[in-house]
Amino acid sequence: MNRRWQFDWRLLMFSGLLLPVLLSLGVWQLNRAEEKQMLLAAWQQQASQGDWPTLVSGGLERGRPVVLTGWYTEYTWLLDNRTRDGVPGYEVLTVFTPVEGPSLVVNRGWVRGPRTRDQLPEIDTPGGLFTLEGRLDGYPVPPVLAEDTGPASGWPRRVQALPAATVEDTVASPAGMVLKLSDSEQPGAYRADHAPDVMGPQTHYGYAVQWFALAAALTILTLVASYKKNERIRKTGADNDNDNG
Questions:
Q1: pTM of the model
Q2: What b/e string do you get for 113-129 counting C-beta neighbours within 10 Å, with b at 16 or more?
Q3: What is the full DSSP assignment across 124-151?
Q4: Is residue 163 a contact partner of residue 146, using CB atoms and an 8 Å limit?
């Protein structure tokens, strides 16, 4: 028996308006993934070939990978109220002096805090010349600032936040961003398992798949709904014929 598709014009209009939107969102995410891939590739090349002073003069960007060679200094702040796996602790922030260019703060990762608040963890800052790899990020300043609870002198110092102005009181003309170490294998690192600072291409690809999947689901549901409606019409027509007979 031949069957004809009989679409509901309201359902067809709804699908016709929504389907292009879903497809365009999927294509947009694919384009964003390609742009992000090119950006990360350019950043990686600049990190391996460019020098720190040139990078600073050109403008620092959050998430940009950086490779630096220099020395750790004695200036270390312990960023309070940082937890890992439900355990309280601190993030270790130490000033790093590159061979060339301005000093900057390096987030060396997380360390467990002592049992009592009147003690600070022992921080081991290695000496010598090191090469660090990491990504740039903003200074750790939460929306609501609490008062510092650590000593005003001596190092390390416990802080609730570390705005740039606090660093400038200790270091002359520091860089405008912080360097987060890429992993715990970096020199002087503690538990450096920071979340990514920039959305990678894989995330955009994942979003694109979701939008295309929704578009496919919409198409299938529209066809299924129209098919059921057509069958219902046929059944109603057959019942009417039986009644007339």
A1: 0.64
A2: beeeeeebbebebeeee
A3: ----S-EEEEEEEE-----SSPPPP-S-
A4: no
